[in-house]
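Sequence, structure tokens quoted for completeness.
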Amino acid sequence: MPQDEVIDEPFSIEIEEEEKPGPTINMDLVDEEPQQQIQAQPKQPVQQQVTEEVVNEQLFEIPAEQEANTDSVEQPNQNLETTEASQVEADAIEGEVVEEEPTNDAAAFAAEVAKAQARAQASQNPFLIQKDANLPKPTSPMPTLELLYHPEKRDNHIDKEALQDIARLVEAKLADYKIKAQVVGIFPGPVITRFELDLAPGVKVSRISGLSMDLARSLSAMAVRVVEVIPGKPYVGLELPNMSRQTVYLSDVISSPTFTENKSPTAVVLGQDIAGDAVVGDLAKMPHVLVAGTTGSGKSVGVNVMILSMLYKSTPEDVRFIMIDPKMLELSIYEGIPHLLSEVVTDMKDASNALRWCVGEMERRYKLMSALGVRNLKGFNDKLKMAADAGHPIHDPLWQPGDSMDAEPPLLEKLPYIVVVVDEFADLIMVVGKKVEELIARIAQKARAAGIHLILATQRPSVDVITGLIKANIPTRVAFTVSTKTDSRTILDQGGAESLLGMGDMLYLPPGSSHTIRVHGAFASDDDVHAVVNDWKARGKPQYIEAITQAEQSADSLLPGEKPEGDEDVDPLFDQVVEHVTETRRGSVSGVQRRFKIGYNRAARIVEQLEAQGIVSAPGHNGNREVLAPPPIKDV
């Protein structure tokens, strides 16, 4: 048999049967020195300190030629001069103030004092100076990669002899459990290494799957994941964590050709696979994503990475966002970017109204596309562009003379994609109820062609939150670390997520596939998010649609069987109940039940209708209702 060949990663190693496993294990696949160099140079923000003496002296009236010098106090990340230089400048300012003649305009003097006090307050509280007016104007049409953190060049060293020793150890440990297998391929990655096993004839894969915990103990590993089926190969995969783990940064994936060559405005970054290749998806083809994982698994970072990647690809004319954040922490950082259709929704009632607005917008877009004879949003926008280039713009076919003051229908404009991001879906279900589930199911069923997409995230992957109705309409799922195998089956319909390593380690189930892909999620720090958000804030302000969070119901946004508020049908027994209540002077639900032999729900609904009509009062502290209507006039 030929000697082992050294091949660039990913590579395959053949193990000679006569070689014995080594006595020691060395799993240092990556040099630790480059990682230590990266960690030794964190980004440190520039701190500014303003002495009390300088601030107090700025409360005097400052001449116009000196007022420009005070602008440096308002800038957060500029180096201030030394205390001695500041004292000399303050003395010069004070001398000029003394030489000036006193002014008689008290209002002007008070205004100058107010400005000086505001500058002093801003210098003492740097959080007050983060205003849109102070943001630098960007020069490039889209955010640049310089806004993100770039790690130093990492020269990864792979110890092939150590990998061969581990492969022999894996074969030996499997032999202890009476399983004959041979390692035929080794694929090292940034976080884990996959060993491909060729099982002996007659050995079932289920035997290895049941030994995952025992193998982790025998190999002294944190967790071992068994890949029962590798697409396109007759082998079984065994994934072991590396002793030295690399961090996958967002800048590494965004600068990769996989992302830069993707022209879709809804391209989303996930991370890198086990071989270190970038994993990028297209939200327009997914078309909805369900993200689940326990606290601290990297779920919120993964959602932020998806949003940032779309901010790097799209303008507000291409993609608009509706963000629902019950925790008021994760998505509120995006407040003020021009991509938002409304303010970040934190009230759950407003969240229900926002989803209902999306249903109405979906129906409106379908009517427009049907009138133009196109099948999806891309075809709609392409047809508008072709008509405009030909000099024959298309007017709104749904316009009615009473819709506006215009004498002719307005021109159709490009429709952007709408991405609805829900950070904690379980809280939304708990507060609002099943109606939200029906709204989300309706959007997930029909909104793909209309260009409306969902990103749902939850840290409670239970069956009462991720129901079968939602799973049936959201084929793309991302599972971070979960507690039990039951939670993994709830998300992915298969196990494996309970064996992940955390910190962004995920299983990605692409649309139209039943095989998961292990992805190491990209990391984006708070500084990266702030930099991209401030860059977009400097480019423009958002134009909010107030109707999104308002409780207006259109005929298109109603669910099947639902009726508008205030348009409830009157019960056929209503008149008879009115006669009975006014005669007996008792308006209790139980009395209506006994008299007309109906159920509690129907009787309670009739009594509520009586209250709405002013026939009976609202229930008092003891639950009794007072009959307000006069008794009927009896014929003599």
About this structure: Residues 299 and 610 are 50 Å apart (CA to CA). The chain has four domains: 1-43+149-246, 52-133, 250-548, 568-636. The first strand starts at residue 181 and ends at 188. The mean pLDDT is 79.
